[in-house]
Write a structure and sequence with these properties.
alpha/beta; Rossmann fold
Length: 270
Amino acid sequence: MYRSGESSSGAIDTSRPHSARLYDYYLGGKDWYPIDQETAEQVKKVFPAAETFARANRDFMHRATRTLAAEHGIRQFVDIGTGIPTEPNLHQVAQCEAPESRVVYADHDPTVLEYAEVLMRSTPEGRTAYIQADVRHDSILDAPQLREVLDLERPVALSLVALLHFVTDEDEPYDLVRGLVDRLPAGSFLVLSHVTPEFAPEMIGRAIDIYDKAGTPAQVRPRHEVARFFEGLELLEPGLVLAHRWRPDEPSELTDAQVSCYAGVARKPA
C-alpha cells in the first residue's frame, strides 16, 4: 500500500523499538520513545561505537549524494529506507549542488510518515515526494507519487543506505536489489551501505542479538556478500570500502571496527 499525507495516528507501536527510531537516537535526534532509548542503550553497552557508526554512515550518504549531483549530473534520487528526517536530508544535499534535483523518499515506519512534511520542503526549482511503503513487499518504482516526480527514462540514483542489513536472506535481498536496478536506465547509480561483522564480530553479533530479540530481524554480511549487490555495475573509486574511507572530506581518525559498515557507489553501464 502506498500512502502520502494521510495521518497514521494510532499506528505507531510505542511498545516495541523500531530501527528508524533507534538510528535517530544514535544520531542525537529527539523522535524516539522510551523503548527505543532502552534498546539503544543496550546496544551501546555491547557496541560502544553505535553512535559513531551512525554518523559515519550518514556522512557517507552526504558525500555520495554530493558526488553524484556535482560530478555526474544526477538530478533524480530515490532514497529507500529514509528514516526519520535529520538535516541535512538527502534532498537538501542534492539541491545545494543542483536546485532542480528531484527526490523521492520511501519508508515503512509510521513515525517517518509523521515527519514526512520536513522531506517535502523542496527548492522551488526541484521537487520531493514521500511514499509510505515497504521495499520487501511494495513495488516502489510503480508508486504514483514517484511517477509524478521522476522520469524513469532518465538516470536515477537509487539510495539503499543502512537498509539491507534489515533484509534477511528469507526476503531475497539480492533479487530485490537486482529487480530495482534492472528497471533503471543506463547511467543510473546504486548507493549502498551495509553493516559487516568482519572488524568487531563479537560486538556486532551481540548488537544484532538485541535487535532480533526486540523484534527487528537483522543480518550482517561480510564484504564478499555485500559486493554481490553490485554485480554487473561499475564501482566508482575507491570501490567497496568502509564508509569512512569513501572519499572522505578530510582524513578520518575512526577505526574500521568503530564504523563496521561497507559502502559503495556504482554506475549501471549501457
